[in-house]
Amino acid sequence: MPTFISNLSVAKRVGFGFASILLLFFVTILVSINRLSAVAEATRQMVAVPIKTERLISDWYRNIHTGIRRTGATARSSDPSLVAFFAEDQAASTKSSAEYHKAIEETLEKKRDKDLFNEISELRKAYLSTRDTILALKKEGKVDEANRLLDEKFTPISKVYTGKIQDLLNFQRQDIDDLAKEIQDNYETSRVLLVALTVVSVLFGVVASWLLADSITKPLLKANEVAREVSQGNLSMRIDNSRTDEVGQLLESLKEMQISLARVVSQVREGSESVATASAEIAQGNQDLSARTESQAS
Predict the structure, then answer these.
(1) CA–CA separation, 203 vs 45, rounded Å?
(2) Which of 67, 171, 194, 217 is 20 to 30 A away from residue 110, measured at CA?
(3) Which residue ranges does UniProt annotate as crossing the membrane (predicted)?
(4) Using 50, 70 and 90 to split pLDDT, how confident is the model at 3?
């Protein structure tokens, strides 16, 4: 563990460890929110543009297809009253088609779609012009001429017209598929990333906990060993301490205690030696005195 962390107090070290773990989990949560936002934004874009446009074009296509069949049936029929009978429906269909045309034009964003839409718009003009001519001929009773125009011009134009609309519809569906794939890819990437972050967070928590416990227990074991050696009378043991935390303070106190005990023992030893020397001198003096006394008595 780095020295600057080892020198922190135990309380600060524990706080630092838990703060680091919480920070990593907080980062994981932020990443999760960010990835979910990306998926939500992609979904919003898909709903806001491609799906909306696809539905408009699909409805427009059905409206036009119905109009084509109605025009064909009217032209083929021998009943001239069908023109008047379908006049209201024809007007409503034309109005709806114009509304779809305008709404679709406003939603298109890609150049590819806009270019194709311009082609469709030109075909629409030819389609409407030919249709109106056929209905006018039919109304005037010119059935053969109306049928000839239907076969030679209206039907080919209608096929190209609806074909282009179908192409535009397919483009939108392709865009939807692409966005759906992007959303799925975002989901897969997010899942892998979140699993990885979770694993890293757990591993970091385990390693941090182990290092934290190790940074506390190892110095305590060393302090315990020092105390045991001192209690057994080993006052010459070298105590190295470079820590400044609580355990370092404990080791420093043990070191001071060892020095103090060594000083006391040294002083006691010196005192004992002085007493022994004095006792020896006294004993020698007594012997000398006894010898002199015996000499004088004889």
Answers:
(1) 38
(2) 67
(3) 16-36, 192-213
(4) low
Reported as a single tens digit per residue, the pLDDT across 155-168 is 999 999 999 999 99
Query: Residues for the chain: how many in total?
Result: 298
Contacts for 24-31: CB closer than 8 Å, 24+ residues apart: 24/197, 24/200, 24/201, 24/204, 24/205, 25/201, 27/197, 28/194, 28/197, 28/198, 28/201, 31/193, 31/194, 31/197
Backbone phi, psi, residue 238, to 5°: -85, 125
Q: Which domains does the chain have, with CATH numbers?
A: 10-208 (1.20.1330), 233-297 (no CATH)
Number of neighbouring beta carbons within 10 Å of residue 67 = 21
Query: Which of 16-30, 231-245, 250-264, 284-298 is the most confident on average?
Result: 16-30
Q: What is the CA radius of gyration of the chain?
A: 51
pLDDT at 124 over 70: yes
What is the rounded CA–CA span in Å between residue 96 and residue 66? 12
